[in-house]
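Feature request, filed as a ticket because there's no other form

It would be nice if the structure record came with a short human-readable summary line next to the tokens. Right now we just get the raw output. Example of a typical job, pasted below so the devs can see what we mean:
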Amino acid sequence: MDILNSSLIANPIISNIVTLATVASVLSFTSANSRVRTAVFPILLLWTWAALPHSRNGVSRNVWASFLASNLLGQCLQYADMALLSRWSYEADGPTSTLGGQRNLKFEASGKHVSTMGKVRFGLFATWAARLANSPWEVKNTPPFRADDLTFVPSRRRFLRDTALKLTACIFIIDIASLVSAQPAQNAALFSEARVPLFARIGDVTGEEAVVRVSVSLLGWVINYCVLEAIYDMLAIVSVVLGFTGVSSWRPIFGKIEDSSSLRQFWG
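Raw output as currently delivered:
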């Protein structure tokens, strides 16, 4: 299989685009019970398995390489849910099976008007949708744009401006954090194997080491937050600019920090 050794799979950006296009195309142009969906899944898994080792090719930041690898795996999971378990289809405009845990099932309408662009929009929505905002299957506790006005939706211009600013800020923070952590010699000393135990050597822990431990922990949270926000913002901008979805589909990815007063509220 020469394709598994081709430049397509060696380039992490291209391999991600191919995966996205494959998932979206199958969801767009096949029926809920099509055998094509089952046949494509092992091919998608094989493609992902072959592409994962190349996730760092040409990528200067580990955090972006991790994102590209995670997206490949995430698309496989999304395909398994949308195409094989819940069995979403354009004709039904929703899930047709309870295997994915969905309720309010739909049925494929044989007389539905077929629109190629409509199918493409549906496929991209099903490929990207994680919370299914503004639908009968919306994930519980999806944050609104405004807590004091649940019906508020910003204008397209305002949404793109604010999202672009958030994306720029997140990329800046990620790059700064990557530069700070890219010091192999210093990291080897600060995070040596001898320093792994904490309570067994609590009396020997210096103030500098305590600050480093706390800072690294906080930095991990900040980076994860920024990566998730950046990914979400990029998808939102592309989708809204190209007209695949409206602004209302891209409600905030995170709620208010003051609402996370318990584990249940923290995880939503």
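Something like this underneath would help us a lot:
The chain has a mean pLDDT of 82.
The longest helix spans residues 207-241.
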